[in-house]
Structure formats: structure tokens, C-alpha cells
Amino acid sequence: MSDCIFCKIANGDIPTEFLYSDENVVAFRDLNPQAPVHVLVIPKKHYASASAVEDDSVWSNLMSSAVKIAKQLELDKNGYRMVINTGEQGGQSVPHLHLHLLAGRNLGWPPG
Ligand code: AMP
């Protein structure tokens, strides 16, 4: 998608430091962090939201990468949260599937 900001990040059009990258997934720090650690994990391929995914391997790649990154950052010691906002009421603002990896403070529940 030529006008998608996360596609531009994934394909290098917007220079971004990746915490993790493989053939399917990249991860980078959120521009507006909501916790001391706030990483976005995205598929390189464009999916407008979780609802647009039809291939199960997208989920295994995304989730296993997120858990790998959490371990690399040693977030598993104190815990972390993974969130996928989906659609308008789900709070999704960027229409490219992304997983938020949040950690570094006590995260409230229920979410706002
Ligand atoms: P969501 O509201 O779930 O769609 O999350 C989108 C997230 O993307 C927000 O937390 C934004 O702060 C973040 N974001 C938007 N643009 C960028 C960018 N260029 N680089 C890093 N994070 C971004």
C-alpha cells in the first residue's frame, strides 16, 4: 500500500531503527509511547486490521516474534502486555495490522 505509513516503515521508505526484523515481520519503538517499553510489531505485508488476515501463518509469525522480542528485552522477568487494537471502537488509528508490546510499569485493567 503506497500511502500506508507502516508499509513505508517496513520497506525502508521511512528510515526507522528496527529492534527486530525477519522475512515476515519488523518491530520498532512507538512514536508516542504509553509505557516505558512500547514496541510495535508488524507484518511486512499489508493487512488493514486483524480482521483482514486469512492466512494463519501471519498470526504465528507475529506472536512468536513478539514473544522473542519480549525475551530479548528481558520483559518476561516482570511481565508485559500484547495488544492488537482492531477497528474504530477497538481504538485502531493506523490501518496496518500491528501488535503493541507494552512493559515497564504496572498496566491497569480493564483498559480505557
Ligand atoms: P493503534 O492506535 O492501535 O492503531 O496504534 C497505532 C500506534 O502507532 C500509536 O501508538 C502511534 O503512536 C503509533 N505510530 C504512529 N505513527 C508512527 C510512526 N511513524 N512511528 C512509530 N509509531 C507510530
What would your notes on this structure say?
The chain is an alpha+beta fold. Helix content is 21%, strand content 20%. A five-stranded antiparallel sheet has the order 1-2-3-5-4, covered by helices on one side. The termini are far apart. The mean pLDDT is 97. The protein binds adenosine monophosphate. Adenosine monophosphate (AMP) is lined by residues 5, 30-32, 40, 85, 91-94. Adenosine monophosphate (AMP) binds at residues 5, 30-32, 40, 85, 91-94.
Write the layout of secondary structure elements.
Elements: H1 5-10, E1 20-21, E2 25-29, E3 37-43, H2 56-72, E4 81-83, E5 99-103
The structure holds adenosine monophosphate.
Question: What percentage of the residues does DSSP assign to strands (E)?
Answer: 15-25%
Low-confidence stretches at least 5 residues in length (pLDDT < 50)? none
> Total number of β-strand segments?
5
What is the molecular shape?
globular
Helix amount: 10-25%
Largest sheet: 5 strands, antiparallel
Give the terminus-to-terminus CA distance: 31 Å
Q: List the strand order in the largest sheet.
A: 1-2-3-5-4
Helix-strand category: alpha+beta
Rg computed from alpha carbons, rounded to a whole number of angstroms: 13 Å
- Please give the count of helices: 2
Along the chain, the helix and strand elements come as HEEEHEE
Look at the structure and give the mean pLDDT: 97
Bound molecules: adenosine monophosphate
Key phrases:
about 110 residues; 5-stranded antiparallel sheet; single chain; alpha+beta; binds adenosine monophosphate
